[in-house]
Each structure stands twice: as structure tokens, then as C-alpha cells.
Amino acid sequence: MKYKVLERQQQVDRKRGLTFDWSVKLTGFYQSKSYPEPLRLVGFRDPETKKRLKFLTNNFSLCAYTICQIYKSRWQIELFFKWIKQNLKIKSFLGTSKNAVLTQIWVAMCYYLVLSYIKYKTKCHYSLLELSRIVTEVVFERMSLIDLLGCNSFNVSKIRDPVLL
User: Fold this and answer.
1) pTM of the predicted model, to two decimals?
2) What is the tens place of the pLDDT at every residue in 18-30?
């Protein structure tokens, strides 16, 4: 992205990892048409990973370190939702209110924890995904929960093939 530096903040707290704090204007043809106002470009070197990061914002009122922390927190939230999609199998949220989203996340996390606990206690060799599929298949079947939690291959084959029941 092309930009022109309008103003350089002279003092940045290098002890906290800040490398620069500039006021910039976008100079690319489409970028300058889409956003003609000045922006703030903050440079940061993460002390943990040693990566150099640049953050572009239109917020001039917060200090540069706060902006870096907000982006870092936002990235943690993105990673959390990625984990939710991969492990809790939430494809989309059923509601749009804060309460609906939180309820769906809590229910999915409880289900994940119960499956993890079952796997730990029964010491079965199935993955959580396989165990989840087994539970899904027998949720409306008339079968002893003790047999299901035994997780031996004969019980699982009975679950998958109702003729063996």
C-alpha cells in the first residue's frame, strides 16, 4: 500500500516495543479516492515473537501502545473463534443477539468438555470427532449409556449396525 508520511511522532516508547507513530495519507489511486483523510500508522515489534507489525487506524486520540494492545486482543479473539469453528463445529450462529451467541458458544463448549471428560474417563481410543459422531448416532436409540461409554469395538459396531442389536 502506498502512502506519504505527513507527520512523525518524535517520541515513541521503544521499551514497550513501539518503533514509530506516523500520520500518513494514502497515495494509491483507488485508496486515496476511497479514504482521502489522514490515517495513523503505528509500528510495533512484538517482544515475544520478535515480529514487526504495522497497524493502520483512523484513531488519533488513543496512545500508540493502546492501539497495539487493541489489535493484539482482536487477534486473540479471531484465534478463539477459529478454535470454536474447528473444535465446536459451530458453522453459523442461530441468533444475532449477544445472549444468543454466548448461549450457543457455552452449550458447544459444555458439549466439548463432556466429550473430553468421557474420553478421559473411559480411556477409549476414539478421537473426539469419532466420539461425537457415536453420541450423535445413538442419542435417540434405546441403549445403555454404560455400554456406550465402554467404547469397545463391539459396542461401536452395534451402534453403527442396528441389525446386531
Assistant:
1) 0.55
2) 999 999 999 989 9
Q: Supply 8's cell numbers.
A: 512523525
Between CA 87 and CA 136 the distance in angstroms is 16
Alpha helices by DSSP H, the chain = 29-34, 64-83, 98-122, 128-138, 145-150, 153-160
121-156 pLDDT per residue, tens: 777 777 887 877 777 777 777 766 556 666 555 555
Q: In what order do the strands lie in the sheet with 3-8?
A: 3-8, 18-26, 39-45, 52-57
Beta carbons within 8 Å of 67's beta carbon, 6+ residues apart: 40, 42, 55, 57, 59
CB atoms within 10 A of CB 156: 21
In the three-class reduction of DSSP (H, G, I as helix; E, B as strand; rest coil), residue 96 is classed as coil
